[in-house]
Amino acid sequence: MKEQSRRTFVKKSVGAGLGLGLSVGAPKELFVHHVYFYLKNPDSRADHAKLLEGLNKLAKVPTIRMVHIGTPAPTTRSVIERSYAFSWLCFFDNLIEEEIYQTHPIHLKFVEEYSALWEKVIVYDSVGPKR
């Protein structure tokens, strides 16, 4: 059996767990959609709970390959933005799958039912660099 470095093992393990290739063999069209939600009432536990409920429903859109719902980590470096309530990170096989997500009834219902909770949303979409 070929011995591998810890770094290689971790990289392959994480990639396998996410269902993503993290090396040269990574899907060329992988589309990443990252949304930051800023609540109108950031101190409201009820609003946090309600938005989390909505994000869990949104995670059921079938074209999403992998999703992560997060809150600000307890890190304190000066470059870290921590004023958002939730981070919504999801991966799609390609732009077409993300466009299907945008018009999917679950997504449209999420926006309709939960958009009153947030004051601002910032979206970062990215794809892999051209090789």
UniProtKB/TrEMBL annotation:
<feature type="domain" description="Stress-response A/B barrel">
    <location>
        <begin position="31"/>
        <end position="126"/>
    </location>
</feature>
<dbReference type="Pfam" id="PF07876">
    <property type="entry name" value="Dabb"/>
</dbReference>
<protein>
    <submittedName>
        <fullName>Dabb family protein</fullName>
    </submittedName>
</protein>
<dbReference type="InterPro" id="IPR011008">
    <property type="entry name" value="Dimeric_a/b-barrel"/>
</dbReference>
<dbReference type="InterPro" id="IPR013097">
    <property type="entry name" value="Dabb"/>
</dbReference>
<dbReference type="InterPro" id="IPR006311">
    <property type="entry name" value="TAT_signal"/>
</dbReference>
